[in-house]
Amino acid sequence: MSTNQDSISELKEEIEAELPDDLTVSRVTYEGPELVIYTGTPRKFAKRDGIVRQLAQKFRKRIAIRPAPGTQTKPADAEAQIRELIPEEAGITDLDFYPTTGEVVIEADKPGLVIGQRASTLREITQEVGWTPDVLRTPPMESSTVANVRNYLVKEREERREILERVGEQIHREPLEETDWVRVTTLGCCREVGRASFVLSTPETRILVDCGDKPGAEGDVPHLQVPEANPIADLDAVVLTHAHLDHSALLPLLFKYGYDGPVYMTAPTRDLIGLLQLDYLDVAAKEGRTPPYESEMVREELKHTITLDYGDVTDIAPDIKLTLHNAGHILGSAVAHFHIGDGLHNIVFSGDVHYSDTRLFNGAVNDFPRVETLVMESTYGRRGDYQTDQEDSERKLIDLITRTYENDGKVVIPAFAVGRSQELMLVLEEAMRTEKLPTMPIYLDGMIREATAIHTAYPEFLRDGLRQRILHEDENPFLADQFEQVDGGEEMREAIAGGEPCIILSTSGMVTGGPIMSWLELLGGDPENALIFVGYQAEGTLGRRIQGGNREIQLTDRRGETNRLTLRFTIESVSGFSGHADRNGLENFVQSMNPRPQEILCVHGDKSATDQLSSALYQKFNCRTYAPRNLETFRFA
Amino acid sequence: MSTNQDSISELKEEIEAELPDDLTVSRVTYEGPELVIYTGTPRKFAKRDGIVRQLAQKFRKRIAIRPAPGTQTKPADAEAQIRELIPEEAGITDLDFYPTTGEVVIEADKPGLVIGQRASTLREITQEVGWTPDVLRTPPMESSTVANVRNYLVKEREERREILERVGEQIHREPLEETDWVRVTTLGCCREVGRASFVLSTPETRILVDCGDKPGAEGDVPHLQVPEANPIADLDAVVLTHAHLDHSALLPLLFKYGYDGPVYMTAPTRDLIGLLQLDYLDVAAKEGRTPPYESEMVREELKHTITLDYGDVTDIAPDIKLTLHNAGHILGSAVAHFHIGDGLHNIVFSGDVHYSDTRLFNGAVNDFPRVETLVMESTYGRRGDYQTDQEDSERKLIDLITRTYENDGKVVIPAFAVGRSQELMLVLEEAMRTEKLPTMPIYLDGMIREATAIHTAYPEFLRDGLRQRILHEDENPFLADQFEQVDGGEEMREAIAGGEPCIILSTSGMVTGGPIMSWLELLGGDPENALIFVGYQAEGTLGRRIQGGNREIQLTDRRGETNRLTLRFTIESVSGFSGHADRNGLENFVQSMNPRPQEILCVHGDKSATDQLSSALYQKFNCRTYAPRNLETFRFA
Prior knowledge:
- The structure is a homodimer.
- The first copy, chain A, is an alpha/beta fold.
- Chain A has three domains: 2-158, K homology (KH) domain (GMP Synthetase, Chain A, domain 3), CATH 3.30.300.20; 159-173 and 182-384 and 580-636, Ribonuclease Z/Hydroxyacylglutathione hydrolase-like (Metallo-beta-lactamase, Chain A, 4-Layer Sandwich), CATH 3.60.15.10; 390-577, Rossmann fold, CATH 3.40.50.10890.
- The first copy, chain A, has 21 helices and 28 strands.
- In chain A, the strands form six sheets. Chain A has a seven-stranded mixed β-sheet with strand order 12-11-10-9-8-7-28.
- In chain A, a hairpin with a 4-residue loop joins strand 15 and strand 16 (345-349).
- In chain A, helix 11 runs antiparallel to helix 12 (295-303), helix 11 packs antiparallel against helix 15 (448-457) and helix 17 packs parallel to helix 18 (516-523).
- The A-B interface holds A 181, 183, 185, 201, 203, 225-230, 629-635 and B 181, 183, 185, 201, 203, 225-230, 629-635.
């Protein structure tokens, strides 16, 4: 600790040496990976364009400049001045001052107008009032999740700052060990889909990557009890690639086990887990299972999140730098690149990837300065796992819906709330707008509408083009009239089931529970209706069994009674909408990497998928490939 | 604990139910893996031939019957009666009574005569005096090591019994976890020779197999700090395959780290580590290195040993049974077979093996009821690593010595004190006796004589035939006149160097220190002398460098000064005497296994050796093979 204080003093001196004499430094601290400089001359700092960039380059850190207490204009006066500086079209919806850190958080409909060209407006604000502005987007669709998460983080701002300072000390500690090896331990998702979780370790550091559940086998949790993961409380960091529950569901459990460190992810992932994990607890309770943790632990986790933008190279330990890149899979999904030691080794966890562009997202990034080891998803890794291209898939989907419509039937599409639902909404909205499909109601059941609203809060994570449309209310496809939230419970569902032809998008995506179960019961007996699968159905799920031809299913009905149900509606699968790269996409992801990895671990796929992908990649690219089992530890470097 | 007491009470009742009414049970306890039954009727027990075997079969345990306190004849009277019962030719050398356990330890020149046919004399003793006899062999060559170890264990007998009872409770605990996986972690000796060490783990249990140093790279110790091995204090058991320091040197360190559990090995291995580890500390001190532990830790280790005979199937944890088998490598060396779970998995650690018979030992056992996984040494695993057969080797050795003798030169042979030295002694003694070689002095320097004496204490571990010769003093080859101990230090060495032609067997075997260094200095400059390598020289050792052609070496001479020395004597290698199977032997070891393992980990060899052996075994036997790196964890079952 004293060493750390010494090095902080040294750092302060070094910073002062870099600055012109009229800029003062009152305090220097780390908040997580960020270097925070408090200054008695915040206005002068803001005037010196370029000085922060210069410091960032010199110290290879993200830098935040904050006013030392007592140097700013009083909030009441400052607020008036700030509102003066920002153009009215920016649409300020909220404005709060935080004296401890000298920050003013400005929430607005159009954050770009608050920031100004090359951040000129932000600098002007500081020059005028001495406060450091922090800008957030007001989502164009109201989202209770986004609001709740933001309110919670505001409430916990002080404790968060303490956590960040502690984490900052940890990251910038003097290392005790020489980093001369790198290991990866598989805690789950090997030769199976579900419970993604890995430990990445060096002599100095241990990182957990993902901590998911297994859909259709809720008892199968990651092997967190193995020595490589313990003590959980001493892990240096947790990194979450994306919000889907098979990657995130059990992350709050770590806090129950005493973990008290940072969780790195993108900002949309943070909001999405706020939605999905609380729902996970809800579903567990409804199904009579004891949830593995309480909602309090979700709040603990949120309090410990550190959000990263794609491309930011971030120190997360003395010997590890993390960079998240777009994975193309769902909102905020990331490929995680770890640079270890001083050039010792580079390892990439693909998370779930979609390699080509979709309507929602740009394709996954696979361009890294160096990668020796790739841990890669294999969902569609089998020899025959090719998907039809999206154009053909859309045509097939539209045909199926049209036929059902003409037969006076209703279409049910099970979909993950996050990802495939929004992709389908875009497809259906366009088809109706261009009259390829008759306009009819599209009911969103489960958390789909809320998830969609979260998408609109983060347009910068969406595909170029779509972003712009969302920001112009008239063109926001998600606000089209035909979308209607199912918010009236079973009564509303019965009314819909008895009504006109329509489309129903409903969770859960693998038919493992949730409102989709009601829809099976209400619509499954009628041959005029149709069930259309558009996403991957994992082994052990009811979705997989139905897809595989099972027509006799057991359902716990709305009155809690177990009934046998014979499905008589049309059952179809349309393959082009998956959020996962198909076999082609997986091969292309590796093929176009430059340099190529020396070894690839094929994970996150059934045994045949990981085996076949592993052997294909070995033959094609002549690198070492493995289809690991759970509970193995690989050593690299 | 209470559960354990409950199950002990139940066990006592079950035992009583098995016994005729006139046999009583006063107490039942576990001492390590052994079930100990105290009885108020020891004499009657001894009369019932077969009852102990019947209990052993029923409870699948080794069983010891001991008299309850107060049921035996007084020691003074008992001693007279015992001496009466045992034939005089048995040569009793010591006889001690231990009232707490009711045992009488009888040390004799001919233990077989104390035991009698099918243990008849032992039973007679108990019938007469009520004591349980325990028989030890008095070594035909005096060995201070054997004497010291025995005396120490006698002194610590009470504490040992407490340890054994504690271990017994641990082994027979109610398991907390279901054993549904098996893992092996490599802590050392992968792609290298030295620092053998593995963790074998299940959800319930963790076992350490071997814990050696690395000759020529003393700082490279096993990676004991990895999570899979920690906490060291909580390991369930340690198993030692044999006494060589590259397998045993750092075992006492475990006790420094808080380990307090059992160490399983054969009885000769226990005595040999008493010799080798203390010498290891000695050498470190002499070379100015800080030894990693103190001699007190060697004593701790000895106190915690549980010795097993070859072939004894022994419970060492609730879910693991261990059987040691002859490995043919050195005295007491073992192949360790682990049966895990109730038929879940079987894994064999070869330790170091010699597959064919040698003069000293029968060839390694490779016959197991089941083996799925084999962890196999690869010292001579390279494609070209074939050794000439022993007959040719012996002829070559004898020729070399004869030629040197005829040139009036002296022969220096670096050899491990344990193993190769005794093999050579047998070869040389026979060659001189049969006049294939002129009789000349054979000087034994370092610990060779003492190690030889330990061999004579355990003739049942030696090859059939040799055993008998040792037991008849006139034929004991190790007692031949020409063998002479170098016990006069440097003065004696100088006298020998200045004297008549002779042979010198000297440690260390890889020329990494010890008296061999003096011999290089005294004899290395003279071209008439010869240095003959007969064993494996590991990478990084001076032996390897000299063998590789290096003639200019640096030596710290006897006065502590560093000098350059040019070696001018003849340098030869004779390959047939290694204690290791050659490439042929390694392949045969696998080939003749029935059933063959499903996967083989090739370890304990340079990278090229493990790689080449791994790929050859894969091609020949179509099983999965690996050449692991250190710090990896494999999962089986």
